[in-house]
Specification:
The protein is of the alpha/beta class. The chain has one domain: 3-Layer(aba) Sandwich (Rossmann fold), CATH 3.40.50.1580. The chain is built from seven helices and ten strands. It has a five-stranded mixed barrel. Helix 2 packs parallel to helix 4 and helix 5 crosses helix 6. The radius of gyration is 19 Å and the shape is globular. The chain starts with 36 loop residues before the first strand and ends with a helix. About 9% of the residues have low confidence.
Amino acid sequence: MANAMGQDPPEQGSIGQSSAGQGSAEETGPDKATADIGIVCVHAREIRPLLKRLDRVRRYTDRGCTFRGGFLNEVIRIAVVEAPRGFASQRMAAEALVSEHRPEWIISTGFSSALSENVRAGDLSLATEICDTHGNSIAVPCPIPGSRRVHSGRHVCADAHPLTAESKSRLRDSSGAIAVDTSSLAVAQVCQGAGIRFLSIRAIAVELAEDIPEAAAAMMFRPDSRALGSAFATVLRSLQQMSEMNRWRMRSTEASDHLDRYLTGVILRLSEKLVRDRF
């Protein structure tokens, strides 16, 4: 597998890789394949503003995932993997991120729906625990304090994203969670097994009391969905529905922008000691 951190895989016997029958080569500087921070998302739209902040970006695809590596503020090494939703895909992506780039922190991030009336569109939610609908759960030590627009609490990882207020209310009642996504638990479990520090930071795009149209949900949560094309075709038959889609598109853009500002601050905070120790 190629790596995304600014160099191709080392040749046999070069720095960062041992050749058969030889001792490990002595490193003279930081391994350019490693990352300070790893990020796992479902699709690039969720973190597009952050991706634009990175320089010297390298990109490759492997097993249905897109990997990008670049630098924030010249010295903070970021590795991003964009993987299809679902437990198996997200787990595979996180395992590849760990094995290829060995980040000190991994952040699962992206769009979510609120399961609490106190969590509004445009807010952010930090997981302190992640559960699923099958009885599994994992604690997430979160060193970042909440605020008026940044909530913290239990998140639930569902098999499919709930589209109606009724389905979200049922999920809230059964899980006690304040936000729902479809990917974070798999990433958290990989990090726990690998001893890598983990955060889940979700941008709230849909409120508890809102129903989201199927086409808008496909755009926001399932951009790889085969139903996306037919959903858009249905929407485009009506100007009123087009206006509704534009509203949800603006909602996703606002959520992405808010996530970018907050996530960038978190990355800078987490990376400060890592970069200082490296130099």
